[in-house]
Amino acid sequence: GAAMGARGLWALLAALRAGWCLLPQAGYLHPDEFFQSPEVMAGDILNLQVYYPWEFLSSSPCRTVVFPLMTSGVTYWVIKSLQQLDVCSNCINSYTLLVSPRLLFTIFSFVLDYSVYRLAPLWDADPWKALVLLAGSYVTLVFYTRTFTNALEGLLFALLMVLVSSRKSDGTLAEPTSSPLIGIITTAGFFNRPTFLAFALMPLLYWAGLIVSSQKSIKTVINHFLKLVLCACFTAIVFITSDTFYFTSMGLDNLYSIKKSSLFSVIGQLNEKMIVTPFNFLSYNLNPHNLALHGSHPRVMHFTVNGIMLFGILHILAIGAGFKMLKKYIHQLIWVKSHYHGSPGLLVHSEGSPTLLLFYFVPLAFLSLFSHQEPRFLIPLILPLVLFSASQNRAVKWKHSIIIFNVLGAFLFGCLHQGGLIPCLFHLEQLMRSPESSNHPRHYTLLFAHTYMPPRSLLNIKKRDKHIEVIDMAGSEEETLCRTVEQRANNFICDDCHIFVIIPGTVRATITKCGVSFKNETLIFPHLSMEDPPQIPFLFSRNWRSQLGLYILQLDRDQ
C-alpha cells in the first residue's frame, strides 16, 4: 500500500511538473535562463531582435553553441517549420517562444527520475520514496524546467552516476562497460560548463577504482582507459569544430548562407583559429577581477546559505552526517577504495553511505573555491543528496518540514520572483500586434527600469522592424532614470509614438518625481523584486498589491 501511494504521489508531482511548465511559470529566476540559450537561438533561427550576451560574441566566445542549438534551437526550428507549412498561422508568439524550450528541458528532467530509480537500490533506498523526494523538490519543479546550462549539467552528472554504477541481475555491482559513453558525457559536460569536472571527479574516481579492482589484466585496464580517452577526444573535436564554424561565421544565418565556393575558406579559418570555448571560459573566470564584476561572495556561501536555500533540511542533514562520518572514517576519505580491501562497491552498503556524501561534498568544496557563488550552481547535487536522504529513511521524520519548505520555495521562485516581467512582455507583444497597430504602424519605446534584463525575443520583433525600441535601464539611479524619461517625453518624433515605462511598484514613487504624467497604468501582479524589496508596513496597507506588482506606465503626450 505504501509503495502504491508513493507511485501515485510521484505521478501527481510529475504531472504538476509538466503542467506548470505549460501554464507557464511566471517566475524569472536569473537572466542566464534566457541569455545563454533561447535568446541567442531566437535571433539566429527565427531572425528576431534579441540581445546577444558577450559570451556569444565572436570577439569573446565563452559558451559552446552546440547545446543551445540542440535544445532551444531545435524547438524554434520546429515552430518555424510548422508556421512555414501553414500548420498554424501564428506558431511563433510569446507563449511558444517561452514554453517550447522549457517543455523540452522539462522532458529532459525525467532523466533525473530515471537515474534515481536505477541508483536507489544500490544505496539502500526505496526507489519510489526517493522519486517522491526528487519530484517534490522545488529545485526539480522550477530550476530543472528552465533553460539553464546548470540543468543540463545536472542531467549529465546523473547519467554519469548511472554509467559508473553498473549492477548485475542479482543486484550486486558489476564491472562498468561504458567507457566510451563515460568519455563522451564527461567531455560534453566540460564544454557545457567547465565546472562539470568538479561534479565528474568522484564518479570518475569511483569508476577507475572499480575497473582496477575488478581486472586481473593490466591490458584490459589500459583498454578501458584508452576507449574513454579516444571518445573524449572525438567529442571535443566535434564541439571545437562546431563552435569554430559558428563564431567565425558570426551566427547561424551566415553559416547557412555559406556558398560551396567559400566553404574552403571557412575550413581554412578553422585551421588558423580553433575556438575552444571552455578554455576561454576558464581564462575569464579564473581572473578574480572578472568574477568581482558579477559579484563576490564569502567562500562559505555555498555551505552556509545556498545549500540551505535550495535543499533545506536535506542539506543540514548531510552536513551533520558528514561531520559524524568524517570523525569515524577520516583515514578512509583520503581514497574511496580504502574502506575495505575488496571492491570499493562495498562502501555503497556501509553504514552512512560515505561515498554518496563524497559525491555531494567534493563538488561543493571545489565550487566554493571561487568567489562568485550563486545557488543555481549547486542544482546538480540534488541527485546524490536525494539518494542519501532516502537511504535509511533519513528524511521521513522531517517530511512535514520538507513539504512546507518546497511549497514555499516553489511559490517564491516559480511565481513571485520577478514574476511580473514575463506576463508584461506577453502583454506588450499582444499590444504591439493588435489590429490597430498592424493597420497603422506605430513607434514604440519600451523603457525597463529596476527589473531583470528583459529577453527581447519574447516581444517577437523581427530584425527588419525598426519601429520598436527597447531600453534597459537596469537599476539606474533616480537622477539618471528621470533624465532619460524626460528626454523621451520631450522628444515625441511622430503622432503615433508611444512610450511605456516598466517599473516595479516599490520604486513607482520615483517616476512621480520626474515631472511627467501618464495616461494609462497597467499593474501586473504578482512581482517581487529582491533588489528593491517591498516595505513591510506597506504590505499591510490598502495598496499592498502595488508593492508586489509591476507597472506598465504609458507617457501622456498631451501633458
Automatic annotation (TrEMBL):
It comes from the Eukaryota. Residues 1-21 form the signal peptide. Keywords: Endoplasmic reticulum, Glycosyltransferase, GPI-anchor biosynthesis, Membrane, Signal, Transferase, Transmembrane, Transmembrane helix. GO terms for biological process: GPI anchor biosynthetic process. Pathway: Glycolipid biosynthesis; glycosylphosphatidylinositol-anchor biosynthesis. It is a multi-pass membrane protein. Its main location: endoplasmic reticulum. It is found in: Endoplasmic reticulum membrane. This is Mannosyltransferase. GO terms for molecular function: alpha-1,2-mannosyltransferase activity. One of its GO terms (cellular component) is endoplasmic reticulum membrane. Belongs to the glycosyltransferase 22 family. PIGZ subfamily. Its EC number is 2.4.1.-. The chain crosses the membrane at residues 196-213, 225-247, 303-326, 403-428.
